[in-house]
Design brief:
The protein has four helices and nine strands. It is of the alpha+beta class. It has a single domain, classed as 60s Ribosomal Protein L30, Chain: A (2-Layer Sandwich). The strands form two sheets. Strands 2-5-4-6-7 form a five-stranded mixed sheet, with helices on one face. A four-stranded mixed sheet has the order 1-3-8-9, with no helix packed on it. Helix 3 links the parallel strand 6 and strand 7. It is globular, with a radius of gyration of 18 Å.
Length: 185
């Protein structure tokens, strides 16, 4: 989520989950995440080599606390950009790669498309060029990103357990018929 020394970690792989971000200037660090309809923004300063990744669930929403706010794109983008700036990056040297935004649920609103559109508009409004990535589609993907070089790799997720976790829609609230009865506890 924040800059940390991961040099003592084997492999220097940092997994970024929903609502998190991570920033690093260590050339051996690789950031990774798994996406369905969520979007990950990979952002870096091309001159200093400091870069990072976030992972957000929805474009915008009501924020009632720090942990809840991290799920939303607007807040996630501010956290990532501010962390990069605090560590020496300059906005005018930043470039982005965008991943995710798949349509994972038939018959429901296309959250993935909304996430992708939000990320593209946010970066356009901030004047940060998008130089690559992969948005849309109908399947899950695993993304690996090396923040100091900007190298990115995407693989289709074929593990049915991972895909099932990403495709499980929120459980609907059961509708209870009101027959005018009153229950006391």
């Amino acid at each position: 989520m924040i800059v940390e020394n991961v040099s003592n970690r084997p492999g220097k792989r940092v997994h970024v989950v929903q609502g998190e971000h991570h920033v690093s200037s260590d050339p051996d660090v690789m950031l990774t995440t798994i996406l369905g309809s969520c979007v990950a923004v990979c952002l870096r300063d091309t001159e200093t080599g400091i870069g990072g990744m976030n992972h957000f669930l929805l474009p915008e929403g009501k924020v009632e606390g720090l942990d809840e706010g991290r799920r939303y794109g607007a807040y996630a983008m501010e956290l990532l950009i501010n962390e990069l700036l605090r560590n020496g990056a300059r906005r005018e040297r930043m470039e982005a790669k965008l991943f995710g935004g798949a349509r994972m649920f038939d018959g429901l609103s296309d959250v993935g498309a909304s996430n992708a559109a939000f990320a593209e508009k946010f970066l356009r409004d901030e004047g940060i060029p998008v130089v690559g990535g992969s948005l849309g589609g109908v399947g899950a993907r695993r993304v690996q990103y090396w923040p100091t070089t900007g190298r990115a790799q995407q693989r289709t997720v074929t593990d049915t357990n991972e895909v099932a976790r990403l495709k499980t829609p929120p459980k609907p609230v059961p509708v209870v018929e009101d027959e005018g009865s009153l229950e006391l506890f």
